[in-house]
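Model the whole thing, not chain by chain.
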Amino acid sequence: MTGDIEEVAHRYTLYTAIGAVVIATVWHTGYDLTVTVTGWESFRWPLLAAAAWVAYTAIGAVAALSLLRTFAGPAKARELAVAVLVLDVAVIVSCRPQDLIGPIDWGWGSVGWLGVMLLWNRPRWRAEAIAFLSANAGIMLVAMIATGTVDRVSLAKYLMVIVGSVTLQLGYMVGCHTLRVRAEDAALLARRLAADDAWRESAQRIHADRLRRYEAIREVAESMLKQLADGADPGDSRVRGDCTAGAMRLRRLITEREEVPDELVSALREHIDAAERRQVLVTAPPFGERLPALPDGVREDLLRAPVAALDGARTRARVTVSAMSAMVSVAVVADNDDLPVSPDPVREPSGVVVTYQRQGGEVWVNSIWQGP
Amino acid sequence: MGQQHLAGPVTGPVTVALVEDHQVVVDGVRSWFGTHSQVELVAQGPTIESVRGTPADVLLLDLNLNGTMVIDRVAELCAGGQRVIVFSEHEEPETVRAVLDAGASAFIGKGRATRDSCLETILEVAADRPSMTPPMAQAIATDEGPHRPQLSDKERAALLFWFQSMSKASVAARMGIKERTVRQYIDRARVKYAAAGRPAPTKEKLLICAIQDGLLQPDEVTVYTSLAARTPPDRG
């Protein structure tokens, strides 16, 4: 169940992360590389610009690998983000002051995408992304002030690039996050609807089953009342026995409370019903709330011996189920003369332990499963 | 048994008030008490209010009164020191634990109660002795709540086997111990449960009696330690 949601979340995280990797790669090769090569002569220190490009590529590769493997930025994202800002400064330094706001100064408009990759899907990605992009904008502004590039046109260009790139980078992160959250919500809703359907179906099954048993008990009660009206002797032990059996079945129906059938309880109820149809007096205290999920084969091993005791009960049986989060105990006490009993506990491969005891014409069969 | 208790022992017949809205059950209980000289039904009515004002050693309370569950009234009834025994067909462990936590002295399941077991429980509760009925055994053995008692494996097994088997003798045979030891495990579990749950005047009496009878040591029970601190045995 939780796996579904995690899978949806992972799928959306992965594909949106791949989107960020593609954007950064296209930008870095299509624009950054092009202007570095074509503007080689214009740089003050072209080798520094080239080294920055290579460093950007290396950090980008680390971030992309981490995204594809863990759906999140690398563990040392903060340190790498600082390194990215350093190479941002390197590109600025490699340019002549008059080219600071020109096309060859590719760093400040491009590093934002690397930041997106590094900070992807981290717990505090919003705050970290805003800090990173602000630092990038701040570095560029300081460089402009230091080089005296503060004319109207340069400032307008600065604002346009900063606002444009920050909007795109932050917008992409927020948009993808929203998409993922919505997808998780949708998966959760679908799961709840499916659970509701399953619950409704189970409740209907229980209701139908109860109506069927009420119908059966009504027939028995009608026949009893008719016998009494026709003069059956209430002192007759057979008549009293029938009345007691009917009253017990009614009481059990009234106190049954589970809303979703447990398979173990359902199987037991079938055998209890069958025993009652054979006029066996069955007592079964309410089984309590839902039982723990049982590993394969445990239910069968838990039921086999107690059910055999119940099926062979001559006149009376008591069925009890006790459960904890990692323990289920099923017991039947019955006047069963034919059940072969083992003097020693029987240990099933599933871990269920079955014990038998005979005392005063009754057999007590108890099977217990203890979870890990 | 037969020792003088600190908690005001009941002298003479045990008086019982019954809160039950089904006349057939009232008549049944009355007939159970009819031939027993030690127990006397002194008040009876279909609501809690209808028996209020009549002093009784034990209040026998049906949980479902005219279609309303009165689990949340148990604590209020026990708060004044009234011994309350719940008498109900709602034997689910969760319900049993709820009423025991609220301070009830015992829970008798209508489904399996007999005259003898019912009278035995009433007499034990009136004497502030540990009383353990089958639904209580299951509820305490399967308790996984944060304030559950620290039961030993044998105490827990004895409770569960007793609930699920036919008799204490069969539990003794199953565990390879004496029946007396089975009783001791069960009684100790009851007292530990009382100590672990919410403190109530009736539980305190039970603890005092259990310690007097040597069923357990004061330092085994945290709640009792605070009681013992008020009257240390070596002073005076």
